[in-house]
Design brief:
Elements: E1 3-9, H1 14-27, E2 32-35, H2 39-50, E3 61-62, E4 73-76, E5 87-90, H3 98-103, E6 106-112, H4 116-131, E7 136-140, E8 147-151
Parallel strand pairs: 1-6, 1-7, 2-4, 2-5, 3-4, 5-6
Antiparallel strand pairs: 7-8
């Protein structure tokens, strides 16, 4: 049974936090789906990930190619990712469910703490998962490093 980890971004940009989390996920041997709601925004993330440091290369692809199922990290808007992920990282307010939390090793929800709509969406997701009995943790970087602030 997995858990949902909520990452409240206040200091680092999404792509930096995503690089860190994707690196750790790949170290664990997990396949990851980065689920978003905006194809153009995912295309921007794809470009930013390719421009990362050489020593931090993250093998990944943007959904829609012929090798989607082979990608260790797939950026997608689909609820069902063809790469068979162990972990889903939801960005742009993408949907996550308690069933996913139970079935996967990890579900991560990354949200911009300076965006009122993103903050409200994350609060709704936290409440829905908590009410459904899913395990969830809330992580904040307000002190300059990631700290767990709450857990259900």
């Amino acid at each position: 049974m997995g858990a949902a980890y909520f990452y409240h971004l206040t200091r680092r940009p999404l792509v930096d936090t995503l690089r860190m989390l994707l690196g750790k996920s790949l170290e664990n041997g997990w396949r990851v789906a980065v689920r978003g709601t905006d194809p153009a925004g995912l295309a921007d993330l794809d470009k930013a990930l390719w421009l990362g440091p050489e020593d931090g290369f993250l093998p990944h692809g943007l959904a829609g190619g012929t090798h989607d199922a082979d990608q260790p990290v797939l950026l997608t808007t689909a609820l069902e990712a063809p790469n068979g992920p162990n972990c889903v990282m939801a960005v742009q307010g993408a949907e996550v469910s308690a069933q996913e939390v139970a079935a996967l090793d990890r579900v991560c929800v990354l949200f911009d703490g300076d965006d009122a709509a993103a903050l409200n969406r994350a609060r709704q997701q936290w409440k829905a998962l908590k009410d459904a009995g899913a395990s969830a943790q809330y992580w904040s970087e307000e002190s300059g490093r990631w700290e767990k602030k709450a857990q259900t």
